[in-house]
Design a protein that fits this description.
Layout: H1 3-16, E1 21-25, H2 34-37, E2 47-52, E3 61-62, E4 75-81, H3 90-100, E5 101-112, H4 129-134, E6 141-147, H5 154-157, E7 161-167, H6 172-184, H7 186-189, H8 195-213
Parallel strand pairs: 1-2, 1-4, 2-3, 4-5
Antiparallel strand pairs: 5-7, 6-7
Length: 223
């Protein structure tokens, strides 16, 4: 979870009203992420359930996202934030999200296209906006967008965060409202990194430029 993604989720939350029952898939908050990754406080007036395959902060039910222990049509809102890249069978998780959503229910799903390999406990996939959208054929209305620094058109070509807001049913009016609110709140979403992080980023870009100048390639073995 990053500050820009958290801000975007808050804007979407403010656009959709108060859901009665909320499910967060992949709710365990990683080390040093408690305040940033905890979006439960956005939904204080809702019944909130956090599901994860591991015990930890933010987890109410330990279970696999591939087969969730809930009846069909149980939730008004399902969140799955920065989780699908850690699922070895993400298509099953997405099918379960669709199954447990009530008619007219909303799913907010985010993952990454451009981000380093990170475990928790494993890391399997990256998603283009088109790929993430394709995993939700049962959500009839979908808004897809990305969040990324503006370097070299990364937000268009190689974004960090890819987000799908999907509705189980037709509701283009609500998606238009969400889209407009995201545009209006771009300053809130575009959170600047601390100064020291910017210096680190500049150093990383310079090292990359030098490596590419000399056409240096490396090989890394994972098994």
């Amino acid at each position: 979870m990053t500050k820009p993604l958290r801000a975007a989720v808050e804007v979407i939350k403010d656009s959709i009203g108060i859901p009665r029952k909320v499910l967060e898939v992949g709710s365990r908050q990683a080390y040093n992420q408690n305040e940033l990754a905890d979006v439960r406080d956005f939904f204080e007036k809702s019944t909130y359930v956090g599901l994860d395959m591991q015990e930890g902060p933010g987890v109410d039910i330990v279970a696999s996202g591939n087969s969730m222990p809930f009846p069909d049509k149980s939730f008004d809102l399902v969140l799955c934030l920065e989780t699908l890249e850690h699922a070895d069978k993400p298509w099953l998780v997405c099918a379960e999200i669709e199954r447990v959503l009530r008619p007219k229910g909303i799913a907010i799903v985010s993952s990454q296209q451009n981000f380093p390999i990170h475990k928790h406990p494993s890391d399997y996939f990256r998603y283009t906006p088109f790929g993430l959208k394709s995993l939700f054929p049962g959500l009839q209305s979908k808004l897809v967008f990305s969040i990324s620094p503006p370097f070299d058109d990364e937000v268009k070509l190689n974004p960090q965060h890819v987000i799908v807001v999907g509705i189980k049913g037709e509701n283009e009016k609500l998606l238009k409202k969400i889209k407009n609110n995201l545009k209006k709140n771009i300053q809130k979403i575009s959170v600047h990194k601390p100064y020291t992080h910017r210096i680190h980023e500049i150093g990383r870009l310079l090292r990359r430029a030098v490596s590419e100048l000399f056409f240096r390639q490396e090989i890394e073995f994972f098994s």
